[in-house]
Specification:
The chain is mainly α and 220 residues long. The chain has 7 helices and no strands. The protein has helices at 38-85, 89-101, 107-119, 123-136, 141-158, 162-173, 176-219. The termini are far apart. It has 2 domains: 38-158, Tetratricopeptide repeat domain (Serine Threonine Protein Phosphatase 5, Tetratricopeptide repeat, Alpha Horseshoe), CATH 1.25.40.10; 162-219. Pfam families: TPR_16.
């Protein structure tokens, strides 16, 4: 039975509660430099004050963006899990893919994506997702088990030749009478093809001998 991660949060978020700084109370002294140029001290202080305000605002904007991004990722992860539980594997795949497309590389996301691909009969993509999850978390027993389990399907399928796969599909799709007709038609087509090949080959050899004879006569 394939396991499913359903953790509430998979990506760290940063919530700023108190930076220990109030812009309204921030003040910077404007003392004289060498007691001769108070305007220069005032200018430097004002510039420093402005730069610190800009840096603070940029930092606040960055932290807010990271927080909202983390919440959005958590929402997508939970959405994917809900779709998976309902059997809507295509939508679950889409949700997990959105997380990965945003730049997040998380073993749990790859693991659940592999589960969804497997349930959606996309074995190759399931194997790829499990391998990526395993590289990120090689000690996770669930990831290792699912990877080995799905690889067993791939190994058995890889042993079959194209002809065996074709015959197996025909056997599953057609009745015994229909299979008999198909085999007869294939045999007839092969017989006609072989006859045409032999006849054409004889004609080619005939004209080749005549051409060679003419060349020998003219050269002699």
């Amino acid at each position: 039975m394939l396991g499913l991660y359903c953790s509430g949060r998979i990506y760290p978020t940063i919530v700023v509660t108190d930076l220990g700084l109030s812009l309204s109370k921030a003040s910077f002294a404007t003392t004289e430099i060498d007691g001769s140029q108070p305007w220069l001290a005032t200018t430097i202080g004002a510039t420093t004050d402005t730069m610190k305000k800009i840096i603070f605002l940029l930092l606040l904007l960055f932290l807010s963006t990271v927080t909202f991004a983390g919440e959005d990722i958590d929402s997508l992860f939970q959405q994917g899990n809900d779709f998976y539980k309902k059997g809507n594997y295509s939508q679950a795949i889409a949700s997990y893919r959105k997380i990965l497309d945003s730049g997040v590389k998380n073993a749990k996301v790859f693991y659940n994506l592999g589960n969804a691909y497997f349930k959606n009969n996309e074995i190759g993509r399931a194997v790829l997702s499990y391998k990526r999850a395993y590289r990120l978390s090689p000690k996770d027993s669930d990831i290792k088990f699912n990877l080995e389990y799905v690889l067993s399907f791939v190994s058995e399928e890889a042993k079959k030749t194209p002809i065996e796969k074709l015959l197996e599909n025909l056997y599953n799709l057609l009745t015994l009478n229909e299979l008999t007709i198909v085999i007869f038609l294939i045999y007839t087509a092969l017989f006609i093809s072989l006859s045409v090949y032999i006849f054409t080959r004889k004609r080619v050899l005939f004209w080749a001998n005549i051409t060679l004879g003419i060349i020998l006569i003219l050269s002699g």
